[in-house]
Give the backbone structure.
Amino acid sequence: MSLKVKTILVTQPRPEAEKSPYFDLARKFNVKIDFRPFIHVEPISAMDFRKDRVNINEHTAVILTSRNAADNFFRICNEMRITVPETMKYFCISESTAYYLQKFVVFRKRKIFFGKQTILDLMDVIRKHKKEKFLVPCTDIHKQEIFETLETGNIDFTKAVLYKTVGSDLSDLADVNYDILVFFSPSGIASLFKNFPKFKQNNTRIAAFGPTTSQAVLDAGLKLDIQAPVPSAPSMTMALEQYIKKANK
């Protein structure tokens, strides 16, 4: 018999929007859901970036896979006093990332393109601009899938590591226990054990989003209780809802 679920810790920042499936879930099942990022990003200095010998001005287009990528691309250009030409084209992983660019550039749709949510969606747009020389700002720990997809499509691109992913200090959580911990990246699992080397799962249920995160849970010797996306639960909140329904009967 499953133990009832009363508390959940989501290892990501609290959603900014008032409407979030997590808030709906908390109300529907009367469970407490807290948010706490287990990882954060830190910028790589212009001095360290120069060591990679990447010339931003040699590129005619930028592929942005997140807001962090956008923030750090424009930060490094500012630090290195690089003027980004108005002719630069931006290819964003999603519409929300594309609109985020308004923070940095005058929003002209003809120069800003976006996919639905994945690199495969974005490839349909990128293929129409194969003559461009693409720059891909990224973190030191990145999804290989993005670069493998670009290579398969014979896209001319350069990887630019502009920020690094590091584990957050979670020492204040030492005496706090949750019924479910929700992870979204292998880095989150690494941060858990960096902060709590003697972590024992006991009755804590582990939820993981994506195959690499799920594998990281198993590689760490933990039991994977909730997995997403799966056909019956394409989102993490749907997977959690299905689990809570059974556990809290």
